Structures are given as C-alpha cells and as structure tokens.
Please model this.
Amino acid sequence: MASRLCSISAAARRLLGGPRPSAGDFAAAARFYSKDNEGSWFRSLFVHKVDPRKDAHSTLLSKKETSNLYKIQCEWLLRQSALLEPPGAFHNVKPECLDAYNSLTEAVLPKLHLDEDYPCSLVGNWNTWYGEQDQAVHLWRFSGGYPALMDCMNKLKSNKEYLEFRKERSQMLLSRRNQMLLEFSFWNEPQPRAGPNIYELRTYKLKPGTMIEWGNNWARAIKYRQENQEAVGGFFSQIGELYVVHHLWAYKDLQSREETRNAAWRKRGWDENVYYTVPLVRHMESRIMIPLKISPLQ
Model:
C-alpha cells in the first residue's frame, strides 16, 4: 500500500509541476481516484469548490436605504412605411404619428406624476434619436417597491381618463415592452436636471451568473465617470428579460459625449474595468435619446 501511495504521489507531482505528464501518469491518477471517496485529497487538487451564496444579487447590489422600484417602457411607434398586418392587408401609416403620440403622452402622464394618490413618479421621457427609430422610452419610479406598483396598477384600472388614453395610444403603437428594475447601490439616484441635454441609454445583456462580478467592477469604476456629472442612473432587471443592465448618461451634445468618454480612458483604472467587464457581456446596445417636454430629465 505504501509503495502504491508513493507511486501515485510521484504521478501527482509530475501532473502539477513537473515535465509533461505521460499517459501512464494520468492512468495511475485516474485508477487511484476512482477507488477513493468524494472528499479525497486528489480531487481537491482539481475541483474548485464554490461556497453557496446566501443572498440574491438583487439584495447585494441594490440600495438598502430606499425601496424604489423602476419600470422602463419602450414603445415602438407605427412607422412611415407599409406594414404587413393580418394576411393580405397593408396599411400606410400616417407620417404625423410621432407628433400625435407625443402630444397625447404630454397631456396625460404628468397628471399621474403630480397626483399624490398614485405612488409613482416620472423619471424621464424620451424619443430615440439614434438607435431604434420611432421609439419612445419612459422611466417610472415606484416609491415603496412592489406594493406601490400594485397599488398604482389597481387604481389605474378605474381611471377612465387613463383607460381612454391607452385606447387611443394603442392605435399608434406597433409593440410595447417593459422591465421592472432595481437601481445599483453605487450609482446616483436619478434627479431632475435642467437642459438642454441628450441622453444615452446603454444596455448590456450579461451572461447568467455574472451580475455580482459586474457590480463589483462598476462599484470601483463609476468614480471615473462622475467629473462631468454625466452619470444619471444605473439599473438591473428583476422582471422581464433577466441579467440586463441599463446605464443612463447625460451629455450636452454628441461632441461632449465623445470628449467625456475619451477622457475616461486617460484615467488610470478605467481600462481595467473595461478589461474585466467586457467578457461578461453577451450583447450591448446604445440609444441616443431626446427628452420630451414633460421629462424631469431635460
């Protein structure tokens, strides 16, 4: 038995640090391991043991002092082209659809924002300038989390003006999509700001299981993007498509955006954040957006 253990130990040493192991070394190791139990010393050389997490990433990454929940809505307006609807039908969409949509939105949404009976508030409202065209983006805050969201939704069911608004709006839309979001603890909480500004919504779809690593890196890196007060808010999805991150930035114009982003690369440490976070991303997208008249973010 002692000679057998010595033989296996020598094989293990050759596998870990010596010359290129031979087929016999692997075979000896495999025979020894196959007769050992799950907690053998040999297996511990090759298996990385992961301690189970005790908390969801939503608990670890979101702000503890607030219970804000955010909803982001993207609405695609009917385009100025022929759209294929039910079989055999084509409709040419009216070119004034976007203006009509904006006017309708600006007439109704501020009432919900100002009504203290509704625990929701507008954070920002935009039309996409570059990126998805004929698109409106709305960001809402629900102060009080999910109970506030459900309270708001239940009250809207009996709000006749809002129901009429939805009916009229539906005639202008191609599709709608939304997500429920939490804000990262290390980002600014979005606050109203004066304009004029353009806004960039950068969306990252991460590989499942990488949200904590993303948050850890950005918690260190956000300081490199604060000097020009361009950081508006950072969010991650809870309902809808998961492992999605949204970073919202404000710039005076496209030239200011380019100069600000280039300046970040001259700061020591920013390149490390990019190096460590890029491998976490499956897909990324950028929208440049123009605020509507009613948007608290101008």
Observations:
- DSSP finds ten helices and ten strands in the chain.
